[in-house]
Amino acid sequence: MIEIILLVSSVLFIFALKLFGRPSTAHRANTFAMLAMALAVFSAFNFDFSKYDSAFYITIVVSGLLGVLISKRVQMTQMPELVGLFNGFGGGASGAIAYVELSGSSLPISDVFVAIFSMGIGMFTFSGSLVAVMKLRGKLNNFNKKLADIFSVFFPTILVIPAVLEMDDLLMEFIILVAIISGVIRVAVIGGADMPVVIAFLNSLSGIAAMSAGFIVNSIILIVAGALVGASGIILTLLMCAAMNRTLRDVLKGGFGTTTINNEYEKDPISTSPEDVAIQLSYAESVVIVPGYGMAVAQAQAAVKELTNTLKDKNIEVKFAIHPVAGRMPGHMNVLLAEVDIDYEDMYTLEDINSEFSSTDVVIVVGANDVVNPLARTDEDSPIYGMPILDVDLAKQVIVLKRSMSPGYAGIANPLFVNDNAKMLFADAKEGLENIIKSFELV
Amino acid sequence: MEATFLLTLLITFLASFIGYELISKIPQTLHTPLMSGSNAISGITLIAAILIYPEVGDSQLLKIIILVAIAFATLNIVGGFSVTGRILEMFKKND
Question: Which pLDDT tens digit goes with each residue over A18-61?
Fold first, then answer.
C-alpha cells in the first residue's frame, strides 16, 4: 500500500515539472506538487500516528502556520531573501537529520560517509544562505578573500575524515563548525550582483543535502525529490553563469568588480528632464523598457506599469527586455512585472529582443547598468568582455533612468551613458517615472 | 543489499535525468517560482525526520535537534508552496 502511494507521489512530482513548463499551466503544477508532497509525507507515518508525541505535532502545526503567515506577508521585492532563507532551512534540516543519525545508531561505514556528506553540505548551505540573506538586505560588506581561499581547501578535506578516524561527538562538532564557517566565508566574499548565481547554487545544495539524507534513511521518494531540486538548482546556476560569461568557479571565488579600472568618461553625458522624455516618448511608435535591480530597490514596478498604460493608450507598442541576471535572483524582474499585471507575453528574453533594438524608437533603461554596457562587445580588456548584453545602444534613442553616473557592479564606466543617442534622466527610478507620467498629462 | 543499492542509484540517475530535461524547458519568466517551488520540495527531508523521530530514544538533545529539523522542513513545505502559488496566480490571470 505504502509503495503504491509513493509511486503515485513520484509520478505527480514529474507531472508537476512538466506542467511548470508554461506560465498558463504552471499554477496547476503547484497543486500537483502539493498533492505529491502530502502523499509522500503521509506515507512516512506508515499508518501509525500514535508513535509520535505532542511535541512532534505541535512543532508541525506551529511551523506550518508560520510558513503560511510568512508567505502571505512577504513582498515580491523580498523574494530573493525568502528563497535564500528557505534554502538555508532546507539545508539546515537535512544537516540536522544527518547529525542525529550519526550520533544515534551505529551506521555501516558507507552510510557514515553519506551522512558526513549530508551534514557538511547541509550546514554549509544553512550558514551560507543566512549570510546571503544578510547580503541581500545590505547588512554585510565584502570579506577578506585570503581567509576564504584557505577554507575552500580545508572544507572538502574534512569530509573524508571518517576514512581515517573513528567518528565521535567531538569530531562531528568539529566538522559542523568547519562547515558553518566555510559557508559564511564563502558567501561573504561574493558581491551582491552575483547573488543570482549564489542563490541558485545554494538551492541546488539544499536538494543534494536532502537527497543524501534519503540515502541514509533508505527513502526513495526523498532521493528522487532531492535529486529534482538539485538538478533544478544546477540548471539555474549554469544559466546564470552563462548569462555573465563567467564560470561558477570564478563567481564563487568572489571579489568581482572590486578593482576599479577605467572609470573615466571622455565627455559629459547629456542630461534630460521628465518633460523632454514625455515629448520624446509621445513621438515614438515602439518603446522597450529594460528593468534592472534599481527598479526593485526603488519599488518602481507600479510606476512602470502606469507608464506602460499611458503609452499603450497612445497606441505605442511597449515591450520589456529582461536580462537573465537582472536583479538578485533568476526571474526576479519577471515576478515584479507580473505583480503589477504586466502580461508575460510582453516580457522578452535577451535572445528574442536583441535583433529588435535597431528598429526600436526609444529604449528606457530603469536602474540597469552592466547588462546594457556595450564594452562587453568591444573591449577585450574589460572584466565583462564576452558577456551577452542587451544591445540597447543600437536603438534610435535611449533614456537611462539612474540616480548618478556611478559604475555598476563590475566597477567600470558605461559608454552607453555618453553615447550620441543616449540621454540621462538623473532620478530615483520611481520618482523619475512618476514625473514622466505627470509630464504626459501636460503634453 | 548490493542489488538494492544499485537499483537506488539507477533511480537517482533516472530522476536527475528526467528532472534535468523537464526543468531545462521552463522559461526564464518562471525561474523565481521554480526556485520557491523547489524550496518547498527540498522540505521533503521532513520524511527523514518522521522516520527517525520514534527511534531517537531518551536523548533530549537529539530530540530537540530533530524537532528543529521538523520545524525547518515544515516551514519550507508550507511556506514554499504557499508563496509559489501566490506568484503563479499572478501569471495565471494574464492568460
Answer: 999 999 899 999 999 999 999 999 999 988 999 999 999 999 99
Q: How far is the C-alpha of A87 from the C-alpha of A93, rounded, in Å?
A: 10
Average pLDDT, chain A: 91
Distance CA A156, CA A153 (A): 6
Q: Which long-range contacts (CB under 8 A, 24 or more apart) does A280-283 make?
A: A280/A362, A280/A397, A280/A399, A281/A311, A281/A316, A281/A362, A281/A436, A281/A440, A282/A314, A282/A440, A282/A443, A283/A361
CA distance A130 to A291: 27
For A125, the 3-state DSSP assignment is helix
What is the percent of chain A where pLDDT is above 70? 91
Whether the CB of B36 is below 8 Å from some CB of chain A: the reply is yes
Is A370 a catalytic site residue?
A: yes
Cβ burial, residue A271 (10 Å; 0-12/13-18/19+) = exposed
Q: Which DSSP helix (H) or strand (E) runs through A15?
A: helix A2-19
**Mean pLDDT score, A93-117:** 88
Look at residue A262 and tell me whether its pLDDT is greater than 80: no
Residue A399: its H or E element = strand A397-402
CB nearest to A37's CB, from B18, B53, B77:
B77
d(CA A303, CA A282): 17
| pLDDT tens by residue, A369-393 | 999 999 999 998 888 999 999 999 9
pLDDT band for position A209 (50/70/90)?
very high
ipTM exceeding 0.90, yes/no: yes
Write the CB contacts of A64 (distance below 8 Å, at least 6 apart in sequence): B74, B75, B77, B78
* B79 to A71: CB separation less than 8 angstroms, yes or no: yes
Pure H helices in A283-406 = 293-297, 301-313, 332-339, 350-353, 375-378
What type of residue is B24?
Answer: S
Q: Which residue from A131, A236, A136 is spatially nearest to A186, judged by alpha carbons? A: A131
How confident is residue A170, by pLDDT bands cut at 50, 70 and 90?
confident
Q: Return the C-alpha torsion angle B60, B66, B68, B73, nearest 10.
A: -170
Domain boundaries, chain A: 74-253, 274-442
Q: Does A319 touch chain B (CB under 8 A)?
A: no
The CATH code of the domain at A274-442 is: 3.40.50.1220
Q: What pLDDT score was predicted for residue A169? A: 79
Instruction: State the Cα–Cα distance between residues B41 and B80, nearest whole angstrom.
Output: 8
Query: Is the model's pLDDT at B81 over the cut of 70?
Result: yes
A94 CB within 8 Å of a chain B CB = yes
Q: Report how far residue A387's alpha carbon sits from residue A369's, in angstroms, rounded to the nearest whole number.
A: 13
Residue count of chain B: 95
